[in-house]
């Protein structure tokens, strides 16, 4: 449910921002020259690219962190298993005579 709600909020925000990003050049069309409109268009494209890159980098960082945590947990479990195995000691007739 949380994922669905966050996706809905992101979609609505994207639609609103997209509308204003597209409406801005049309409202400024009569007051800007051709060169200024090209500069505005290039600036919008760069902003979109920067936002996309930020989201992509954040997602990649989370994925790498999750993989690193899983690796650490596997190593930890392996060390604990080996340690418990070495501490077990010698068993004679069901009795542990270590230490």
What does this structure look like?
It is a single chain. The protein is mainly alpha-helical and 99 residues long. 82% of the residues lie in helices and 4% in strands. The chain is built from two helices and two strands. It has a two-stranded antiparallel ribbon with strand order 1-2. Strand 1 (91-92) and strand 2 form a beta hairpin. The model has no long low-confidence stretch (mean pLDDT 83).
Topology, element by element:
Elements lengths: L1 H27 L5 H54 L3 E2 L2 E2 L3
Antiparallel strand pairs: 1-2
Describe the structure concisely:
The protein is mostly helical and 99 residues long.
Note the main sheet.
2 strands, antiparallel
Shape label:
rod-shaped
Quickly count the helices.
2
What's the total count of β strands? 2
Low-confidence stretches: none
* Helical fraction: over 70%
The N- to C-terminal Cα distance equals 54 Å
Radius of gyration, whole Å: 29 Å
Q: Which class do the helix and strand fractions yield?
A: mainly alpha
Strand share of the residues? under 5%
Nearest-integer average pLDDT: 83
Strand arrangement in the largest pleated sheet: 1-2
For this entry, give a set of tags.
99 residues, mainly alpha, rod-shaped, two-stranded antiparallel sheet
């Amino acid at each position: 449910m949380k994922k669905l709600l966050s996706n809905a909020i992101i979609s609505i925000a994207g639609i609103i921002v997209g509308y204003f990003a597209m409406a801005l050049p049309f409202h400024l069309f009569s007051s800007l020259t051709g060169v200024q409109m090209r500069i505005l268009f290039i600036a919008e494209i760069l902003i979109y690219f920067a936002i996309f890159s930020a989201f992509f980098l954040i997602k990649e960082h989370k994925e790498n962190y999750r993989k690193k945590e899983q690796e650490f947990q596997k190593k930890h479990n392996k060390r604990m298993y080996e340690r418990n195995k070495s501490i077990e000691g010698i068993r004679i007739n069901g009795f542990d005579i270590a230490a």
